[in-house]
């Protein structure tokens, strides 16, 4: 493969006090991770320079504009090798590529590696100066150093690191089983619907347990919904880091309120059989960016 940089598109970002068309090429090809690769040398050099500028505390110096290098994951690669070779850090590589674990990499995957360290503000927003000022104040960053990615609809926050909970999650200490004891009565995936007797997709786990059993938050987060919702019956939704949310359905009652911050293992309600249920159980879901995922419990 050639080490030649390939122009794929133009990128529009926000710098200073308004929108400008950025005159550097869009995603650039990073053919390999050999230290002799000119593309890799350039990437590492820009990361180092942007890191120096972001830590300088001066408003006179402007960051080298945000751009990405695309790298195709090889069989012998792993997350930490790529991180070390490119000069990246955990926060940047995982945030930009929406990775929730070092094990999310697979051969043939295309990674985007930016020329600066930092993370994305997790929510999509506009690229206005007003939004930039709000985020600059929230994260205590010089507003002129914030960079807007128009394709993602998100602001890139140079120099911002993960908190302890995010790192803990990334390294594998993630979702906790939400009950003390239960029997999995219905798995994630296709199943015979107990009401219609037809094969349907089941987007969570049903955990049969004694009525009134305590239900615990599977991870730290913020309660975004408490109330009745269709077939879920009494439902609690908790928003977590990295675009995740968990859902707890068919509850007997609630022990939390909307907007409340909760810790992993904190009681949030009790097992019931409200809504579309054939007996007392907890319907548990994990979603990431609204897409249902098979629940995997990394710690108990």
Structure report:
This protein is an alpha+beta fold. It folds into two domains: 10-162, no CATH class; 183-293, Glucose Permease (Domain IIA). It is built from five helices and 21 strands. It has helices spanning 38-56, 79-86, 90-96, 129-139, 164-170; strands at residues 10-15, 18-25, 28-29, 68-72, 110-114, 118-120, 147-149, 154-158, 183-186, 189-192, 199-202, 205-208, 214-216, 221-228, 234-239, 244-249, 251-254, 261-262, 267-271, 281-288, 291-293. The strands form six sheets. Strands 9, 12, 14, 15, 16, 18, 20 and 21 form an eight-stranded antiparallel β-sheet that branches. A hairpin with a 6-residue loop joins strand 10 and strand 11. The chain is elongated, with a radius of gyration of 23 Å. The termini are far apart. The relative contact order is 0.12.
Give a short synopsis of this structure.
This protein has 300 residues and is an alpha+beta fold. Helices cover 17% and strands 33% of the residues. Mean pLDDT is 85; it is low at 1-25.
Topology summary:
Blueprint: E1 10-15, E2 18-25, E3 28-29, H1 38-56, E4 68-72, H2 79-86, H3 90-96, E5 110-114, E6 118-120, H4 129-139, E7 147-149, E8 154-158, H5 164-170, E9 183-186, E10 189-192, E11 199-202, E12 205-208, E13 214-216, E14 221-228, E15 234-239, E16 244-249, E17 251-254, E18 261-262, E19 267-271, E20 281-288, E21 291-293
Parallel strand pairs: 3-4
Antiparallel strand pairs: 1-2, 4-5, 6-8, 7-8, 9-12, 10-11, 12-20, 13-19, 14-15, 14-18, 15-16, 16-20, 17-19, 20-21
